[in-house]
Amino acid sequence: MKLNLLFPFIFLFIIKIQPQQYNFNFEFDYAQFGFDSTSNYIEFYYSFNQASLTLQDTDSISFVEGTLAITIADSLTGEIFLDKTWSVKNPVIDSANANRSLIGMISFILNEGSYKCSIIGSDAVNPNLNNSITELIRVKPFLTDNISLSDVQLASKILQDSQNKESIFYKNTFEVTPNPTAIFGEGQPCLFYYTELYNLPQVSIEEGLRLDQFLFNSRGQLVQSKRKDLNRTVSSRVEVGRVMANKLPTDTYTLTINLVDSVTNLGVSSSKRFFVYNPSIVPIDTFQQQISPVLSTQFGAMSEEELDDLFAKSKYLATNPEQDQYEVLTTLDGKREFLYNFWKSRDENPADDINRSYVNYLKRVEDSNIQFSAVKKKGWKTDRGRVYLMYGEPSEIERYPNQIETRPYEIWSYHNIEGGVFFIFADLYGFSDYYLVHSNKRGELRDESWQRRITIR
Questions:
Q1: In the chain, pLDDT over 90 holds for what percent of residues?
Q2: Domain 1-141 has CATH 3.40.50.2300
Q3: How far from chain centre, in Å, is Cα 215?
């Protein structure tokens, strides 16, 4: 399996963006472009907000430093192709640039296949301040016999006929500055995009090849559309465009680019989702007259699949009525509103802009997947994962992995719950999936004869 690392260095580009409501303001995005008939060229874009990083002082300069860790593994076999960490450092000259972001890019070449990519951005001084993102990336080569369209890259700025060939953002005579946050509007009035077209049919017919640009809002309504006729003189080309985001009301949008060849009756499509924050714009659509606060949070950018996955992970904290209420929801907006209120009601400090209960819970989900995953089962779905999510880190863990007469088991103790409780987990079937066999916690499984279940006969 081929994985080539291109540009194994960090480029720091400073650009002001709209701050977001995250515990640690780190964002990531990616786009695929054609490389050869067996692989694609992948660009990873990242963004550290300087205000999220610890200010460090020396005798000569003040600076901030982040850490970027990327792991790429085959999603089917688990084989790791890349596990590397970079340092991202930038001087802070004055307070004027303290709330700006460090934008950079790292590029790879990946063969056709499916990959699980884990990206962690953290503070170099305090690694506990971090944001982790996991993406499943499917690589299907663009350079084949049929017309094809690369991913759509969102950008905060595109310079045409650029002479700055030393910039890592330079490609095909353009300098494309990415916007990993995918947030536009009040802080970033114009959305630029970049895409590449491949395998265009070079025939004598002048007409029949066109590029369509569609913009849809969160309810699937068409907001804007453009059409551009293309000539057939070249087999590949670059297309750039823009959307005036400062004229759009606050919402989540999807930009869709269609490449259509009406002569051969072939067409391909590529889409990218982004968020617009424009509190001063009054929607003309009566259905949008009341903009829910959910749209300015991370829930407003989630798809239905992402919302269902989040609620499945949150079920351990949900009451029976809450579970019943979510099950009957059928609209995307309804699910977004529910989860927004669900986690808002569990915010231990509503006066703080950061819902730390939500952030810490998602961190425990990630930790569970790392520590407790078993065969064909994610860590948060296991009994140990459930207890970890509900009650947090145990005060003490006793492990018995190699007993002669018993199966492997663990005893977790929580000293600050109900005067002291414990949970006993055992690997009953030998697949490293530890089941809860006994606990003295109210409402949990109680089996005083649990030792009988783990005894090897």
A1: 54
A2: no
A3: 22
